[in-house]
């Protein structure tokens, strides 16, 4: 059996709320999972859905589920590895400008004045930032000179609302830590001119203790310009006990989350870790990864989400703002919270009372949810569902997942087959230490899946074709 201490693949080469009272069961029929339509899950929607700060608004986008990435999986898992241990992002061509911590007062102006093609290299140290970094010119990169995010710390000290404010295309942030933003460590939105922003790259970042969403992406206020084809890879998100008291409380009591993307097309979120994004009894935090208000073609894969209030969300509400696409992929359907997209090979784990839902699909049409491992212990007393799909416009494909429970509400439909519900810790090598490789005796998961065309790679970067049939969940054991 393969050993991996914290579970996801390392990358190399460049490149609401009730106790689980259901008995363990296989879910092999069409939408035969628990019907939770009568459950009171109002808490699922209590986190504030609008960011009304002046720079915020909404967003829209498109991308292939096999988008190119510098995070190429390495199938050699002979030693334990860090799931965010990706190869450094390759250097950009063009002008380089080196900045030291002693120049922190000049850094906002250096960023504003940078010409297209400039790479700003931050030398090791702590940068006590007093003003936002405004990226107004396309093609600017900000990264550490050492490619060690832990060695370059931009500390907003809860005095700067948004640390990196991006309104231009092809901006890259790589290998830096951003901590203690009043609102967002990173915010990407178009300007008022109605020009789309594309090509945002957030790579190898450490984002710690945000007051609101750690990464915010949305359209301009006129909703005529969008933020499309971006990616968040190989990054680490954490809300610590020290940071939690600084979370914005209004509206909803816990207005924070990991990645919050409105109306964007073609984003990729892969090989990231999320830890501790919750509030202790003060409201339900948003998802670690959330795409809503009509995004399209999102790929969310190979992420590790630990002790967050909610894991991954496509859509949220029954009706509201959306995005219209010229090809109108689902004519006459009404409000769509998320168009198409794939959620695969993610691991979501919780053992805290404030965990609610692992994967949430709300007015999500065409989404594919394959080979995810979603497990919580009995200590997660607020647990509602591992995978929840709801509302009449939802039509999804949910297969080959390992879960405690799958719920359907509000007239949602889907192909829901070859999943396992009612799992416990015995399915895994060492769940308490975040090793979610399948145990040798996990016979109800091994070879119990079906082949799907967009299965992707498992947590070790391996294909799901090692045995007589694919295994359930995010690990292919053989």
Automatic annotation (TrEMBL):
UniProt keyword list: Signal
Record region (Disordered): 17-99, 457-478
UniProt biased composition (Polar residues): 20-45
PROSITE patterns: PROKAR_LIPOPROTEIN (PS51257)
Biased composition regions of type Acidic residues, renumbered to the chain: 63-79
Matches recorded under InterPro entries: Pectin_lyas_fold (IPR012334), Pectin_lyase_fold/virulence (IPR011050)
Signal peptide: 1-18
The protein, known as: Uncharacterized protein
Species the sequence originates in: Bradymonas sediminis
């Amino acid at each position: 059996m393969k050993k991996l201490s914290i579970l996801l693949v390392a990358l190399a080469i460049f490149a609401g709320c009730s106790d689980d009272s259901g008995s363990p069961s296989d879910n092999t029929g069409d939408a035969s999972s628990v019907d939770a339509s009568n459950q009171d899950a109002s808490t699922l929607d209590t986190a504030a859905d609008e960011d009304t700060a002046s720079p915020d608004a909404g967003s829209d986008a498109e991308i292939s589920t096999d988008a190119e990435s510098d995070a190429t999986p390495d199938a050699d898992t002979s030693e334990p590895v860090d799931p965010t241990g990706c190869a450094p992002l390759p250097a950009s061509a063009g002008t380089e400008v080196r900045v030291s911590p002693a120049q922190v007062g000049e850094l906002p102006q250096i960023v504003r004045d940078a010409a297209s093609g400039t790479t700003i290299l931050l030398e090791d140290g702590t940068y006590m930032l007093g003003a936002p970094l405004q990226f107004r010119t396309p093609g600017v990169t900000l990264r550490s000179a050492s490619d060690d995010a832990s060695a370059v710390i931009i500390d907003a000290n809860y005095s700067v609302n948004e640390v990196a404010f991006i309104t231009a295309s092809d901006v890259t942030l790589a290998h830096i830590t951003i901590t203690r933003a009043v609102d967002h460590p990173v915010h990407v939105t178009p300007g008022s001119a109605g020009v789309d922003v594309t090509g945002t790259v957030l790579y190898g970042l450490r984002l710690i203790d945000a007051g609101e969403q750690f990464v915010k992406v949305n359209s301009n206020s006129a909703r005529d310009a969008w933020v499309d084809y971006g990616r968040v890879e190989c990054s680490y998100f954490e809300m610590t006990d020290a940071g939690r008291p600084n979370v914005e409380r209004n509206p909803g009591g816990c207005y924070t989350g990991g990645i919050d993307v409105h109306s964007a097309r073609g984003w990729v979120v892969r090989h990231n870790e999320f830890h501790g994004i919750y509030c202790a009894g003060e409201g339900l935090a948003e998802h670690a990864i959330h795409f809503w208000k009509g995004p399209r073609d999102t790929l969310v894969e190979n992420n590790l989400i630990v002790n967050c209030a909610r894991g991954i969300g496509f859509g949220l509400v029954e009706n509201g703002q959306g995005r219209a696409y010229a090809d109108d992929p689902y004519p006459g359907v009404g409000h769509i919270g998320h168009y198409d997209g794939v959620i695969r090979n993610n691991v979501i784990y919780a053992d805290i009372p404030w965990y609610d839902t692992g994967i949430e699909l709300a007015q999500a049409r065409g989404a594919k949810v394959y080979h995810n491992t979603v497990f919580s212990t009995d200590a997660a007393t607020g647990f509602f569902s591992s995978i929840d799909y709801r509302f009449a416009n939802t039509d999804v494909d949910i297969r080959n997942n390992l879960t405690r429970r799958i719920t359907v509400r509000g007239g949602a439909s889907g192909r829901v087959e070859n999943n396992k519900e009612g799992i416990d810790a015995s399915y895994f090598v060492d769940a308490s230490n975040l090793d979610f490789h399948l145990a040798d005796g996990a016979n109800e998961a091994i070879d119990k899946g079906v082949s799907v065309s967009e299965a992707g790679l498992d947590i070790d970067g391996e294909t799901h074709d090692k045995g007589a049939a694919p295994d359930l969940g995010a690990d292919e054991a053989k």
